[in-house]
Amino acid sequence: MLLFRSAIYVLLIVLTIGCASSEKLDDNSGTPSRSQTQTEEHFEFINHDIFPSVGSLYNTADMFVGSCVLVTPSVALTAGHCIELGNLKYARFGNEEIIIKLQLVHRNYEMGDDLGLLILETASTQKPMPIIADVDLIPDMFPLYTIAHGEGNKKISKNKVYHYYGVLQNKPNEIVFLPLKTSVWFGDSGGALVYKNGDDGYILIGIITHFSTIGEEIYECAARRTDNFNIYDNIWHPWITK
User: Fold this and answer.
1) By the 8 A CB rule, do 25 and 79 touch?
2) Are 67 and 56 spatial neighbours (Cβ–Cβ below 8 Å)?
3) What SS3 class is residue 104?
4) What single DSSP character describes residue 94?
5) Is 157 helix (H, G, I), strand (E, B) or coil?
6) Which residues contact residue 170 at a Cβ distance below 8 angstroms, ignoring those fewer than 6 apart?
7) CATH architecture group of domain 14-45+131-225
8) 3-state class of 148 per DSSP?
9) How far apart are CA 138 and CA 218, in angstroms?
10) Could you tell me the fold of the domain covering 54-128+229-238?
11) What number of CA atoms fall less than 13 Å from residue 173's CA on the CB side?
C-alpha cells in the first residue's frame, strides 16, 4: 500500500474519487485545462525582500521549485513533495541565498502528511514567521491570505480572495480554505497560509500543499496545519534523493 501511495505522489495526484481529484503544486507539473493565471486582480505582486520569511526554493540546476517558510533562523517548513520532487539545493529569503544542509519529511509523508523540514547551513538574518497556537481559534469563513511564489512570482493574496473552511474530521492535519476568487497555483507549494492579527502582522497557520478539482473546476485549496506539531519532535525522516 505504501508503494502504491508513493507512486501516486510522483504522479502528483493525491486522491481520485469519481470526477474529484487533488493536485500537488510543484512548479514542474502541468496545469489543469482551465487556466487560472494569477493576476493583480487577486494578488499583490511583491519583491523578495517583502515578507522575507516566506522564501523560495531552488534545485541543483538553479531552477525555481517552490516556496518555504522560515520558522526559526535556521529552520524552514515546506511541502514534503517539494523535497521529494525538487532535488533542492538552496533557499532564498529576501536578499539571502542559503544552502540547505538537511532535508527531512514527516514520518507519515507517504500516508499523506505532506510536510517537509529544511535545516539551513547558516542562520538567516530575517525574522521568522510566528505560528498560531491553535487553528480552532479561527472562526468559520474568516479571511485568510497566501504568501507564496506561484508561477515563479512572489505575491500575497488580496482581501476576501480566500476564506477559512476548517479541518475535516477524516483529515485532521489538513486545513481547507476556499478559493472564492481564484486558486493557489503551481509553485505555491510550501508557501504560507496566514491570517492577519492586527498590529502583530501575519501569523502562520498552514503550509500550502495542493488544490482539489471536480472536472476542470478548482473547488478548494488545502494546507498542512502548523499548530499540531513541534519542529523538534522526533517525527522527521531524512530524505535521500532517489
Assistant:
1) yes
2) yes
3) strand
4) T
5) strand
6) none
7) Beta Barrel (2.40)
8) strand
9) 23
10) Thrombin, subunit H (2.40.10)
11) 13
Residue 137, phi then psi, degrees to nearest 5: -75, -15
Q: Where in the chain is the domain with CATH 2.40.10.10?
A: 54-128+229-238
Spatial CA neighbour of 184 closest among 150, 224, 138, 133: 150
**218/201 Cα distance (integer angstroms):** 29
For cell 494569477, what's the residue? 38
The pLDDT tens digits along the chain (242 residues) read 333 333 323 222 232 222 234 555 444 443 333 445 788 999 999 999 999 999 999 999 999 999 999 999 999 999 999 999 889 999 999 999 999 999 999 999 999 999 999 999 999 999 999 999 999 999 999 999 999 998 779 999 999 999 999 998 899 999 999 987 888 888 899 999 999 998 779 999 999 999 887 777 778 899 999 999 999 999 999 998 66
Which residue's C-alpha cell is 525555481? Answer: 64
